[in-house]
Amino acid sequence: MTRFVAIVALPSELPKELWTFSEPLIYSGVGKLNASIATIKAIDEYKPNFVLNLGTVGSLNNKISGVVEIREVLQRDFDAEPLSPKGKVPFDNKPEVLTSSFGEYSCGTGDTFVRSKDPWLVDNHIDVVDMELFAIAHACYSKGLPWRSLKFVTDYVSKDSGDDWKKNLGASGTTLIKALEVIK
Questions:
Q1: Which residues lie below 8 Å from residue 153, measured CB to CB, with a gap of 6+?
Q2: Is the dihedral of CA 115, 97, 61, 10 positive or negative?
Q3: Whole-angstrom Cα distance, residue 86 to residue 75?
Q4: Residue 68 is part of which domain span?
Q5: Between the CA atoms of 17, 176, 13 and 172, what dihedral angle is there, to the nearest 10 degrees?
Q6: What's 138's DSSP letter?
Q7: Which of 30, 54, 166, 177 has the greatest number of CB atoms lying within 10 Å of its CB?
Q8: Helices (H), strands (E): how many in the chain?
Q9: Most distant CA pair in the chain: distance in Å?
Q10: Which of 73, 175, 51, 85 lies closest to 129, judged by CA?
Q11: What total number of domains does the chain contain?
Q12: DSSP H helical segments within the chain, as ranges?
């Protein structure tokens, strides 16, 4: 059993050579499906006390920068209307908002790279967007484990988000490690 297992989508978000902790660092790959598979496998293999997600996000709020800790996550691209509201899986009693005991920000997870402020994001008070956290939190919920998520803001949602993400990605790993050392 280990204290935690860290799940990161890509080595470019947090290179292995920066990882100085004894806990396992797992690269899941991009997207909800990859993240859910990697998280379930990591939980089964390492039996951690909690799962820590580290990675990058785009922000809908220009006042948010640096590393943010996520308190709640919603699934921003699940749309089964009219069977259920956007973000809610129909015929399923699991919560549509998954929460951590830490952080203050909300994240919308989906399998698309966000380049514009969808009204649903604004209406649901989403602070940042990513492509893995909901799946990680859902896997934790399914296994009865807590989760934490530290995210580095690489871009502000706009038509330039992809270029900005690429430009700022290099600062992600060292910035996340510094933030993790402070809270560890």
A1: 56, 57, 58, 59, 64, 65, 66, 67, 68, 128
A2: negative
A3: 8
A4: 4-183
A5: -110
A6: H
A7: 54
A8: 5, 8
A9: 48
A10: 73
A11: 1
A12: 32-46, 119-123, 133-143, 161-168, 172-183
Which CATH number do you get for residue 76?
3.40.50.1580
CA dihedral 19, 24, 28, 30 (to 10 degrees): -30
CA–CA distance from 62 to each of 44, 131, 154 (Å)? 39, 20, 11
CA distance 98 to 19: 27
**Tokens found for residue 29:** 């790959």
| Tens digit of each residue's pLDDT (9 = 90 or more) over 6-54 | 999 999 999 999 999 999 999 999 999 999 999 999 999 999 999 999 9
The verdict on whether omega for the bond into residue 82 sits within 30 degrees of 0, i.e. cis, is: yes
